[in-house]
# Entry
Amino acid sequence: MKRLHQIVSELLASGKAKLVIGYEKGTGEKRRPAFISDANEVERLVFDSQCSHNLSVYLTKPEYKHVTEIAVFATPQTMRAVVRLAGENQFQDKKLSFIVMDQDQNALLIEGAEVLANHLGKEKIALSSAQEELLAKFEAMSREERFAYWKEQLSNCVKCYACRAACPMCYCTRCTVEVNQPQWISVPSSLQGNFEYHIMRAMHMAGRCVDCGSCEAACPLGLPLNIITRRMIKDIEASLGPDIVSMDTKSVLNTFQPNDKENFIR
Amino acid sequence: MENNIKVVAFVCNWCTYAGADLTGTSRIKYSSDVKIVRFPCTGRIDFMLLMKAFAEGADGIIVSGCHPNDCHYTSGNFHARRRWIVFKSVLETFGIDTRRIQFSWVSAAEGAKWAEIVNTTVERIKELGPYTEYRELAGVEAP
Amino acid sequence: MQTENYTITDSNLQQLLQALLSSGQKVVAPVRANNKVLFKEIKSASEVCSDHVQTTLSAKHLAFPRTEVLLQYKKTGKEVTINDFPFDAVPQTFLWGSRPCDAGGFAPLDGIFNWDSKDAIYNKRREQLTIISFSCTRHDDACFCTSMGGGPGNTAGSDMLITPAGNGTNIAEIITDKGKALFENYTSLFEEAMGADKEQYLTKIDKVFDTAEIKAKVEAFFESKVWKEQSARCMGCGACAYVCPACACFDIQDDKHGSKGSRLRCWDSCGFQLFTLHTSGHNPRETQARRWRQRVMHKFSYMPDRINVVGCSGCGRCSRACPADMNLAEHLEVIMKMEAEKI
Amino acid sequence: MCNSNIYMPYPMRVEKVTNEAPGVKTFRLNFINAEDAQQFTFKAGQFGEYSVFGTGESTFCIASSPTREGYIECTFRQSGKVTSALTNCEEGDTIGFRGPYGNIFPLDEWKGKNLLFIAGGIALPPMRCVIWNALDRRSDFKDVTIIYGARSVNDLVYKHELEEWKNRDDVKLVVTVDPGGETPDWKGEVGFVPSVVEKTAPVAANTIAIVCGPPVMIKYTFPVLEKLGFTDDTIYTTLENRMKCGFGKCGRCNVGKVYVCKDGPVFTYKQLKELPDEY
# Structure
């Protein structure tokens, strides 16, 4: 922790970071995002295995868009999101630094998203055993069972949009749900509106989702949103090639191959 | 009841629409249960249009455009193809009945193929019956 | 009416629930779903979950549904037929197993929907609702009802309050005429009061602050930077408002299907960026800090001023639901400890 | 009233559509049900929720005068979802209206005083209601001055009425357009509203100023009026925050503890000064 605080203090002192987005102790055993721009508050910061929020989500929020020099505590999930966001040209006017944990839990400073991209491991984000189990159960379902499953699940969705707010890749200033001319998504949180919303969100995540699990973690109703993105990523990989997070790969739907394979278009 | 099904066809202006025209001028008879909506290109057909079609009463959907390499805009259909690959996967996750969506390539010269696509699709949708399963999701709980 | 005390055994309590269900009444109770507990309509007594501290969503939807039809219309040429809200179709509903903070959460709603214009739709649903609450024998670190003037055995808002007294018995308090009506239908299930003080069975929650002091403080600190500091991690979702028993902000939207449709009232949240956005692009509450301040001020200053009730029952749901761990009680404590010069 | 649905609109017939300016229309609305017409009353300054069935509701003022009974008029600019749907309405169509909501311009308190109306752009409609109300009881007031500005000649609304006011001996009308917005045959003023107010320098003594316009116009007009000697309790304006319900429930329009829909939309400059900067 000492090394961590030292790195942050130096970043703030040198002006390389005007704002540090890190973690602090939250309610009970929780860790939560912390925003620090004063070197005197550095002691508040922690970075351990319980830190799970994907802090890259804040980089595109209107409140922080104008801050140029930002240092972010980056978990592997955060790193993936940062690299994709950088690939989507979201940080062109930003000077970002990242604090990551190496295998021995030592804090490490990385400057610039390009450098972070080289640092990124190739391994996928692991699901919890409960998630794996649920996914396996889901894969075994028939079409009718899957429909019934989501009917049940989405009947609990209140459209609080926490999944959208917590998603680092959901940075549009005007989301499809708020476009009302025409009204793409039914306004009421009726089942149909909820299906439309979650299908729309998945489609807009195609080839962009970094599989960080923020959406599911944010859902107050505990909807198994990872199933949606996991299955989509798997299917995309099966038909369109590996899903590699890097600065220069174009997302799946931004490009094409003349010989893309499918078996359902006649 | 099963005669009352509605099939909406989202077609590209340059190939399938012209193909459908040819079907007509060739006097090939095909099902009248299909309503054609013309688009500049399959690349323009947003997936939300298909969702809206189901929500507003369509029991089946046909999406059709130029064959690969024949796009009037060079690559619109290539983009569309990728979109449909992903969309089909997402719909299957949600248990939406993808048998009700027929994707096809029909060129301006394929009047007979258009008739065949429409007829087989309409027949299949008639077998499946109206898509009430999805439409019943709409609406708000009664007090 | 004066509260009346009785005793009811666990098995008779089950029988009471069973009797309500068998008579075809609509009963809503806490049910387990996705490792969460939610208020849902039940068909059998075995569905009821009782080992939880708090449901994820409040019970407010029973009087203020997350989406409801205010009216329906049908267009024929240039003519429009409008159908009024079907007041007579609102079924009598029994809310079973709510907490005192759930019941207490209806007071702010009653205030909002009845100050000035009376909202007949809300009132009809409210009138049809009988609330049978259970006192809290456990709490978690998000609970702060005592600081909001409530408590684990608070009777306000409930029609009947059951306090588990161990050994298979419960204290039953009949609080309102609706509670009395229910009691009178099933009198044989109840026994004479055992005279025990219910306090001993309740969980203890420390009172940390006082609502009048909070009101004075938040008003004094309106221009403070504390709102920006506290909302720094707020991501602008509506989770806090949607789980809250006292949040009543809503949107009115039309839902159209061909020539027919309905006008709907849907939950909305002051935390959303678009909530106050004008068509011109101007937004009076442009930043999340302003929106967070609005949320706190509305509950702890504007509502006490306007309708004489604090817009919070201390249930702690917002703190549990917040994906960024915005803990309301903690934030209020910070404000309480602030000195004038810290502005 | 207690047991009725407060969200039920009056069905209204669009009797007449007037094109005022590009994108701006005025509707004259008649009550379809005679009993609605009979029991409906309102006062100058109040607003309502106009609805297109299937599209939704939108908030704007009643632009006609309460002294002209049997109908109401509204003027709107096509900008959002509902105003776009309204724009597509034709004469004879049925739309919904519920109201009136909000407080009023205290005309009775202004008896015996001079009235100075200052409006910019699409903000003349809320003012038009008071202007006609005052003109229909002209003897209650002394001098009546109207200063109205728009971006260009084309953007001026109520062109016929401006003509009518110009020709009245008992009204002083000053119309201005922003520099560059004039046409070759434009005979009115050229310049922004605040500078025109300063130039025409109305007398502050015994005068009530009613100011309506875009925020930037209001921001620069208030200091001019203060300089001319107007006190902050003689300057009135209307606030137009986003609203959904119209009766203090939906939670949008409040500025601090003040609900624009209940305590407003009419405020004096003095009241505005006490509000936080959230409008």
Q: What stands out?
A: The two ends of chain D are 32 Å apart (CA to CA). Chain D has a mean pLDDT of 92. Chain D is about 20% helix and 30% strand. Chain D has two domains: 10-101, 107-238.
